[in-house]
Amino acid sequence: MCRWTVSFERRFVLLLLMLCSAAAEAGLYPRVELERVREVYGVNIEAVLFDDIRAYLTPEELKSLNKVSLTFPLPDNKDSVDVFGFAIDLNSGQMAFPAQAIKFFDDLALSFAWYEHTGQDPTSIAEYVVNLHRKGLPFLPPLAALNVPEKAWEQSQYVDDVSQKILKSGLAFLLLHELAHWHFKHGAYHDISYAAARKQEQQADDFALEVMARMKTPPYGMVVWFLATSLVTSDRVTTHPLSRDRLNAIAHSLSESPGRYISYENRHPLTKQDILRLAQDIQDIAARLKQ
């Protein structure tokens, strides 16, 4: 069953920074499991983009969304598959959210929530991702490697709530970030300078944050995920280059108007101080990055 929601514990921000960007060989998960992910999660992700997000877009933004398609590719057994490989084709408007990347994201979210609930040291999760990157396959998938129950959410309402919040907010940010590249007619990174790529990334971040503020959805899950996957390549050209300026811009946007992410409905579990703490974490991270 696919699970969803929107918030995040502060300590996860710093712990996730220990993760290294990893490329796993096809076969991290059984193909039948990825087919299930594509079928079940795909329906939910499509609903987030074409129903939930659509309701908060301007007429011009809707024109861009109407030209976008969404696919959930399965791994090619002949090629390695980036478990962080969410992207959009800037020529066709086709978004690719690989089934393996979705499943990996969900497993990490569930693992962190479970470790927090059970009082375990989540450093083990970071070590797993690093080892996956260094050693490749054969390798156990996250839940088996980290001794997390397959249905951990059934054992704790807290685990269910936190893991859903990480996943949904993260995927919503990803969808909006990729939509922004299409909406603003951004160029492919192999055709532009690194400086231009950084400007494009910042504009895509700004767009995602703006729409999530309209939705009253704090972007905790995606900010943490994006930092984790990009940190080790922050000083060279990547498909989504990360920089000190970019992180500071995200932090500034969060801290300038924290109330934008708080609605009447979520005002009790979520406070402006929660958003400000996230902004401060991001500023601390930015200070440690190479410019």
Characterize the structure shown.
The protein is mainly α and 291 residues long. Helices cover 56% and strands 5% of the residues. The strands form 2 sheets. It has a 3-stranded mixed sheet, covered by helices on one side. Strands 1-3 form a two-stranded antiparallel sheet. Strand 4 (87-88) and strand 5 form a beta hairpin. Helix 1 runs parallel beside helix 9 (220-230), helix 2 (31-53) packs across helix 4 (99-118) and helix 2 (31-53) crosses helix 7 (157-183). The protein is globular. The termini are far apart. Residues 1-26 have low confidence and may be disordered.
End-to-end C-alpha gap: 42 Å
Describe the sheet with the most strands.
3 strands, mixed
Shape estimate: globular
What is the H/E order? Answer: HEHHEEEEHHHHHHHH
Unreliable residue stretches: 1-26
Percent strand equals under 5%
Give the topology.
Elements: H1 10-16, E1 23-25, H2 31-53, H3 59-65, E2 69-71, E3 80-82, E4 87-88, E5 94-96, H4 99-118, H5 123-135, H6 142-145, H7 157-183, H8 194-214, H9 220-230, H10 244-256, H11 272-288
Parallel strand pairs: 2-5
Antiparallel strand pairs: 1-3, 4-5
